[in-house]
């Protein structure tokens, strides 16, 4: 795995944990927390949503799903 992929996966994991710990959060809040652009956060959220780990019941607001997750 190259360094860029590793950094992205680390950030995706951190985004998931942040949402899990803070409840429903906005895309902008995540971008500010992680020092990235809204577009970068949106790509990370797309990965999490594709895997059924987060959902956006209200546009731009994200929460975790009840899908069990093993974090290593």
Keywords:
single chain; 3-stranded antiparallel beta sheet; 3 strands; 3 helices; alpha+beta; 72 residues
Can you tell me the overall shape? globular
What structural class do the secondary elements suggest? alpha+beta
Strand-residue proportion: 15-25%
What is the H/E order? HEHHEE
Rg for CA atoms: 11 Å
Going across the major beta sheet, what is the strand order?
1-3-2
Alpha-carbon distance between the termini?
Answer: 17 Å
Uncertain stretches of 5 or more adjacent residues: none
Range of helix content:
55-70%
Please provide the count of β strands: 3
Total number of helices: 3
Instruction: Note the main sheet.
Output: 3 strands, antiparallel
Average the pLDDT over all residues and give the rounded result: 93
Protein name: DeoR/GlpR family transcriptional regulator of sugar metabolism
Pfam families: HTH_DeoR
Domain HTH deoR-type: 8-63
Keywords: Transcription, Transcription regulation
What does this structure look like?
By secondary structure, the protein is α+β, with helices and mostly antiparallel strands. The chain contains three helices and three strands. The protein has helices at 3-22, 27-34, 38-50, and strands at 25-26, 54-58, 61-64. A hairpin with a 2-residue loop joins strand 2 (54-58) and strand 3. The chain is globular and about 35 Å long.
Structure in a nutshell:
The protein has helices spanning 3-22, 27-34, 38-50; strands at 25-26, 54-58, 61-64.
SSE arrangement:
Layout: H1 3-22, E1 25-26, H2 27-34, H3 38-50, E2 54-58, E3 61-64
Antiparallel strand pairs: 1-3, 2-3
Helix pairs in contact: 1-3, 2-3
